[in-house]
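Moderator note: this is an archived Q&A kept for reference. The question asked for a predicted structure of one protein chain; the sequence and the answer are reproduced below.
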Amino acid sequence: MAIIVDRNTVVLVQGITGREGSYHTEAMLRYGTRIVAGVTPGKGGTSVAGVPVYNTVDEAVRKHPEINTSIIFVPAQFAPDAFYEAVDAGIKTIVVITEGIPVHDEIKMIMYARAKGVTVVGPNCPGVISPGEKTKVGIMPERSFTPGSIGIVSRSGTLTYEISEAITRVGLGHSTVVGIGGDPVTGMDFIEVVEMFFKDPQTKGIIVIGEIGGDAEERLASYIRSTGLRKPIIAFIAGKTAPPGKRMGHAGAIITMGMGSAESKIRAFESIGIPVASTPMQIADLAAKVFKK
């Protein structure tokens, strides 16, 4: 098994004719992802890498009713409309790659999707990959991932790839890797993804890659404290040297009003018995020690 995406995932690509959309459509197809349609307004009737392009999501879904997942490469100013179009067409999983969507728009989007029972990964994320299922709905380089039993959930795209490669080098592989995104507002959070990994029989251990800003890591620690640690988890928190008040990379990676520091997140995890690596590369050694027992 895997979580969120697997061999039954059938994908629509919104913004398929753009530079990023077309490039990653070809990459996802090469990996094995089932992409059956794309959408770009005004480009209906064309194709990208053999994938038919439609003017609207509604038209694409009527032609391909098996579509159950969308990935959005639409520029930020148009991404909310593309998102609502996918939700209203009945698509139940949406991965939003787009960066730079205003926070107030993101709040409205996520609230609307939750009301409709839609699973949202992102915005501003690298997507999801399940190596054993040969399915990726995202932009991650597939060479970093191998089939296995370790689930990874991360706020950082680049760290996801680096740590995944390091995990492979110590002889471990991945069940599913989820990049939830680095914005202050995201569709899925750590708690939801970790709970999915707890329920997934393929996943034997979990790696949480957090960073400064917000309280998602502290909330995960509180959740595990109240519900119990049902599988081994290790963690890494990026941004230990970041000065308060200065945003570091992601829009959500900022320490404000004394909240969201690396120290508070590390303390929260260690207080419930989750070991935290000091550097990204140390997490591979920690993974070998914890997951190979």
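Archived answer notes: The two ends are 22 Å apart (CA to CA).
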